[in-house]
Amino acid sequence: MTTAAYQDGVLTITVPVPRAKSGTTTIPVRHGG
Residue 15's domain spans which residues? Predict the structure, then answer.
């Protein structure tokens, strides 16, 4: 399951990564400037 959360101008996308120890990878994406 892929989840995305938007807070304080930052979109954080969490995707499952089977080979990662934590099982997920969190990718912060900043919008604006």
Answer: 1-33
Q: How do residues 1-33 score in pLDDT, each as one tens digit?
A: 788 888 888 888 887 777 756 666 666 777 665
- The residue among 28, 6, 30, 26 whose CA lies nearest residue 16 is 26
- Kindly write down the DSSP assignment for every residue of 1-33, as one continuous string: --EEEEETTEEEEEEE-TTSSSSEEEEEEE---
The answer to whether residues 14 and 3 touch, using CB atoms and an 8 Å cutoff, is yes
Query: For residue 32, which of 13, 9, 7, 11 has the smallest C-alpha distance?
Result: 9
Which pTM was predicted? Answer: 0.37
